[in-house]
Design brief:
about 800 residues, alpha/beta, 3-stranded parallel sheet, about 45% helix
């Protein structure tokens, strides 16, 4: 049962399908498939009359009355609209006759409890929704309009689709219902700025509403849009709209692109078919093949006499395209599906009982239901229509662009597809280059957005009281990036990377440490080397003049220990320069604290020796027995041992280790030594300060004792420099980061060591080298007597 309209190629599709079944020896052998064709013109009364005619066996239309007629109605194939399809279903259900529907109808008809004998040959409308969302996201059309027919189906479509669009970040700026009228009715549309911003409209429509809807859409666009605006109309219908586009005379002055979803078809018609003559479509034969059945046909220029066996490949291209169109394909597919169901039903009967004669037993219509409702029936008998993993009817869909040329000809261009078979997810593909845009659009994609996209490096900031698609752009916060347009949030870079200036990608941080190659490293290393050589020169001078009174008067062995300690302290600064390693990290603080403890201990021993020497000169004082090397060595060993114990505990509890500091300095990865235990680091430093303080106090008290070469004054001044350096070191060390923190400690080591070297040994070297006259026993005795006086 066909809907209204004189589409001869659709009749031809039905007839070709019947012919193919009847000529196929493996499909319904020894059975000829018969048919009746009725039109309903989308009219309920005509539909009922056609059904009564189908259900009546005699000449008169009297249902349920058999008077010798031969009416073996097994199934009804129909492509009516939803209201008429419901009427057909209600009447056929009385007789348990299968209803094969190849049109897109209301979702209400999916309810098997109300329509148990309805078998749709096309997927449900909801199958389009994921494709709609993916299509919009692909072209970044985020601000759209919805146009629907003013019916229950249109209201349901809008109610179901709008939440899905909102969930996927798509705003429906306009929603308009279009009434179904056949007059030039002008829709009352209030001026609304969004009509100018929205360039993409979804138009939900059923077959009978399409013409009125397009006319009204043209009215809306003509009244509200700029002449240069390019609007895209996307229809959710999956039937062939080429007939309406071609023969309704639409101007398409404002609709510059028409997209729709199309059930994927195969070129099912073989070009070697011979077309039998059907009296019902003689008009088609005349126009399609330029032939006539009249005797004088040859006298007409360009015409021939119809042979009634014309070949399909002889058809013009536009006729051939119509035969292979979606409507025709669905008709063909439905006939093939019913034929396979009939064949399966007859085969099942033959397997259960042996045929006693060649006569085929009569099949009842209700016996087809088990085969029409079988999943295998859909998956094998119907091309590109099948049951998915949820048992619901599905299909692979094409996304097509309908190109309307100035001469009103239509071209259907496939530019995308939605495939579901064999995969739980929708497989969506788009070929933008296949889309044909009007020339004045310069092949550019019409935008449909409320605001311009946020560039990478920015994030969307929703404006209060406005749709989600109308947003501001805000730069990503410090340390974060966004790599996509319209990012909803910014992400942090990995620890070893940082955002670039545009904050749209992460770049690797610079690895930094106190290296020998950089200026600061060169300066510190040069000073260390210079001071090391200077200390070596002093030590060499003292060794060379070790028998002179000046060297001997100030405890020669303690001077050697102090100078060696200073040599090692200058060398220890090289442990802090260069890339930190595990060994250097372990040696840095241990060597520094131990060496300085030995140096300060030797100074303390020198000072105590001076004090004891002065006391020993007094009559009756028993301190003289303490003088000697044993006292000095005991002081150095005991004081240094405490620092060694602290270092051993430090190594056992939490030793220093190399680490990469990625957060202290922006854009840098600092390679440094972690002290392990900060408490132990400051414990070692505090003990060294404690020794220095005692040494300073003892030296200060002994600074005025008589003697030609009394070192107490020199030690006092040197310890003042030493303590000043390390007291200022603590806050400076804590306030710096990275390589500068290391440089502070190296500088403190060099400055304090240089202070000891300069304050104690430079005056002596001056006398030894430049004033040898003062380095004599006579001068020593004279100076001592004068100071005592």
């Amino acid at each position: 049962m066909r809907r209204g309209g004189t589409r001869y190629w659709q009749y031809l599709s039905f007839l070709l399908a019947i012919q193919e079944v009847n000529q196929n020896p493996r499909l319904l052998p020894n059975i000829t498939l018969g048919y009746n064709i009725h039109q309903n013109f989308f009219d309920g009364r005509v539909t009922i009359e056609a059904l009564v005619d189908l259900l009546s066996t005699g000449q008169a239309n009297v249902p349920n009355y058999s008077c010798g007629g031969q009416n073996n109605l097994l199934a009804v194939l129909e492509g009516a609209d939803s209201p008429n399809s419901i009427q057909i279903s209600r009447m056929l259900s009385i007789y348990n006759i299968p209803q094969i529907n190849y049109a897109f109808v209301s979702h209400v008809m999916n309810d098997k409890r109300l329509f148990p004998f309805l078998y749709p040959m096309v997927p449900k409308e909801e199958a389009l929704y994921p494709g709609i969302v993916k299509l919009l996201h692909h072209f970044r059309w985020m601000f759209i309009g919805l146009l629907t027919q003013d019916t229950d189906n249109g209201e349901r479509f809008m109610k179901n689709l709008m939440p899905l669009l909102t969930q996927n970040g798509i705003c429906v700026a306009i929603s308009q219902s279009i009434p179904h009228v056949k007059t030039n009715y002008v829709i009352d549309i209030l001026p609304f700025e969004n009509w100018r911003q929205v360039n993409v409209f979804f138009y939900y429509v059923e077959t009978s509403y399409f013409v009125a809807g397009v006319v009204h859409a043209e009215q809306i666009f003509h009244r509200l849009l700029k002449p240069t605006a390019g609007k895209v109309l996307i229809t959710t219908i999956t039937w062939d709209i080429s007939f309406e586009l071609t023969y309704r005379g639409f101007s398409f002055r404002h609709i510059h692109g028409i997209f729709s979803f199309f059930l994927g078809t195969n070129k099912w018609a073989q070009y070697d078919y011979s077309l039998p003559f059907f009296s019902t479509i003689t008009k088609f034969w005349k126009h399609a093949f330029n032939c006539s059945y009249l005797k004088h046909a040859l006298s007409v220029k360009g015409w021939t006499r119809c042979r009634e066996r014309e070949k399909l490949e002889m058809l013009p291209e536009d006729y051939l395209e119509r035969i292979l169109s979606l409507d025709s394909y669905r008709i063909y597919n439905a006939v093939q599906a019913v034929a396979h169901a009939l064949n399966a039903a007859y085969s099942s009967r033959s397997n259960r009982r042996v045929m006693v004669s060649l006569e085929v037993q009569k099949l009842q219509s209700w016996q087809l239901h088990p085969f029409l409702g079988n999943a295998q029936f859909y998956n094998s008998s119907m091309d590109k229509v099948y049951l998915d993993e949820n048992g619901e009817l599905a299909a692979d869909l094409d996304i097509v662009n309908w190109v309307v040329f100035p001469n009103k000809s239509i071209l259907r261009v496939k530019f995308g597809s939605i495939k579901r078979r064999g995969s739980p997810d929708v497989q969506f593909t788009i070929d933008r280059d296949a889309i044909v845009w009007p020339k004045w659009l310069n092949q550019t994609l019409p935008p449909s957005r409320c605001v311009e996209s946020c560039r990478p490096g920015f994030l969307k900031l929703v404006q209060e009281g406005k749709p989600l698609c109308c947003y501001d752009c805000m730069s990503c916060a410090e340390g974060t990036i966004s790599t996509q347009e319209d990012a909803e949030h910014c992400t942090s870079c990995p620890e070893d990377q940082q955002p670039n200036k545009a904050r749209d990608q992460c770049v690797h941080k610079i690895i930094t440490f106190l290296a020998y190659e950089e200026p600061l490293g060169v300066v510190l290393a040069s000073f260390s080397l210079f001071l090391f050589l200077a200390t070596g020169f002093v030590l060499g001078t003292f060794i060379k003049y070790k028998k002179t009174p000046l060297v001997k008067a100030n405890n020669r062995d303690l001077s050697y220990i102090l100078l060696v300690s200073l040599l090692l302290s200058f060398l220890s600064s090289f442990l802090f320069i260069g890339q930190p390693r595990k060994a250097t990290c372990l040696l840095q603080q241990m060597a520094f604290s131990t060496i300085f403890s030995v140096a300060v201990s030797s100074l303390l021993a020198k000072t105590i020796t001076v004090v004891l020497a002065f006391l020993a000169t007094k009559p009756g004082n028993r301190v003289k027995k303490w003088l000697g090397k044993s006292l000095a060595n005991s002081i150095i060993i005991s004081c240094s041992s405490v620092q060694v114990v602290i270092c051993i505990i430090w190594l056992c509890i939490s030793p220093p280790f190399p680490e990469s500091d990625m957060s202290s300095q922006a854009g840098e990865i600092i390679l440094q030594c972690n002290e392990g235990s900060i408490a132990m680091f400051y414990a070692a430093l505090s003990y060294m300060g404690f020794l220095a303080s005692i040494c300073f106090m003892v030296a200060f008290l002994a600074r005025n004792l008589p003697g030609a070469f009394n070192e107490a004054k020199l030690i006092t001044f040197s310890m003042l420099v030493f303590c000043s350096v390390w007291v200022s070191f603590v806050p400076t060390y804590q306030s710096t980061k990275g390589k500068y923190m290391v440089a502070v400690q190296v500088f403190s080591i060099l400055a304090s060591s240089a202070g000891l070297l300069g304050c104690i040994f430079i005056p002596k070297c001056y006398i030894i080298v430049l004033r040898p006259d003062m380095n004599t026993k006579a001068y020593l005795t004279t100076k001592t007597n004068l100071e005592s006086f």
